[in-house]
Amino acid sequence: MKTNLFKASDRGSADYGWLKPNYYFSFSQYHNPAKVHFGLLRVLNDDFIAGGGKFQTHPHDNMEIVTIPFTGALHHQDSTGGEGVIKAGDIQIMSAGTGVQHSEANASETDPVTLFQIWVFPKVTNIKPRYDQRNFDVNDRNNKWQIVVSPKAEDAALWINQDARFSLTKLDAGNSLTYENGFEGNGVFLVVINGNVKVNDIELGKRDAIGIYDTNSFTINASEDAELLAIEIPMN
Known about the structure:
Layout: E1 2-6, E2 12-13, E3 19-23, E4 41-49, E5 54-60, E6 64-71, E7 73-78, E8 83-87, E9 90-95, E10 100-106, E11 113-120, E12 130-135, E13 146-149, E14 165-171, E15 176-180, E16 187-194, E17 197-199, E18 202-204, E19 209-213, E20 217-222, E21 226-233
């Protein structure tokens, strides 16, 4: 088992007034040659969008884009006809494929939105663009993994054009939880949304992350109540 530690305090950041992002990987004006990607995971941005804030219409192609909101509500509209508002408990995915134009806006003029936006390189390029979103019962992730994104039909999750899985859990203090890979040889980028945990005696606090690879399972021990996101991803 090998690991790469990504401390929250070491992330890149910016302040655009209406948008305050933190970057786990090189993005926009932040470039760190040691943090360009983890396997086929290219982007993980931890965004704060002020009331009234909006990403104007812009293009994407050949990227799987997953959005996970924590607070507030985000309005999405794209050139495939996809449109919706997502909030905590919802997950959104867009396969940019051959090319798509989209915009994202805070649905409130006053309340902020906080979210993760995640980009994954696709398995098959130049597919027809598609958009989907779904609400997941947050109680179904208490002390167990809730798979929210996966290409496997049996996972009953949002479909992704990649051999990747996104799983969420809410782990009570003192509990342990093992992650088992869904795909042999994948790595896992584990993010602590809130709380404090240990993985192989490595302490991780709020918004810390760790890349784990060369193993098909690992165990997490919660030092306090914690929320976690596991992004399982091919390493090449």
